[in-house]
Amino acid sequence: MELHQLEYLTAVVDHGTFTAAAAALHVSQSGVSAQIRKLEHELGEELLDRTGLRVTPTHAGVAVLPHARAALAAVAAVREAIGEVTGLLRGRVTVGMVTACAIPALFEGLQRFRAAHPDVEMRLTESGSDDLLAGVRDGRFDVVLTGLAGPPPADVQAVTVVDDELVLVRADAGPVPGPCGLADIAAGPLVTLVPGSGVRTAFENACAAAGLRPVVGLEAGSPEAVLALVRRGLGIGVVARSMVGEGTGLAVSEFDGVAVRSQLVLLRRSAASPAARALLDALTAAFTGTDTEGAETQQAGAP
């Protein structure tokens, strides 16, 4: 059994296909397939189900994956320990960002980190809030920017970087409307961001708490697209207040009787690598415009 076989196995599971895994690893697809076959032959069990459109782990694969990730993490930790001694970070960090994220501070933080640590390989993946939280806990991601409902789990560190009020926007064709309750607008048609985005998750959680199922008629991958659809009278928009700038030609109103907020947090596991800790510091500094002490850092169990 060789380490690169374990790396190939986890990459195929994470990316869903041999082709995507090979592209991410910068190796040939046939090489990935052959090495995993060798691993399966050595273990005497098939680890991957190749019958569907997406490759998934078998029962044996599910049992092997945590150990494969732990082995790879241990090797990375050895390399990083040497880096701490020499003062030069190496290795790899995998970053996850919430769907439809277009926040300049995130990209500025990644740029800062790359400039400070050019020998660290960096990967960036977009996904939904639930998958990002699960991924940072199971080791697929080192640091994620995601929406978080409630306190963070005990095994992650959370730094709150965005706490914004959700508002309603309409085409400006008359008096500015007053506040509206969730029940007044849940029947739609609503225009908002795609599922998995921080705004969409916060809005749906608020509706679920009120026993409502909102009718979203149109969804888009960027705040600009949502506002453009609303401007053309295609529905009532649900966005974060900071997304609505001056001169948009839209009427903005608040929710009545309930505070609906979209909160974005940076998450990393408490037992993180030196590179992951340095990345979190760089991202926190970019979001706050200060050093990391300027942000609100919350461990589970803290107020």
TrEMBL record:
Residues of the HTH lysR-type domain: 1-58
This protein's record includes keyword Translocase: no
One of the record's GO cellular component terms: cytosol
Family: Belongs to the LysR transcriptional regulatory family.
Highest taxon of the lineage: Bacteria
Name this protein carries in UniProt: LysR family transcriptional regulator
GO molecular function list: DNA binding; DNA-binding transcription factor activity
Pfam families: HTH_1, LysR_substrate
Keywords: DNA-binding, Transcription, Transcription regulation
Coiled coil regions in record: none
Organism: Nakamurella alba
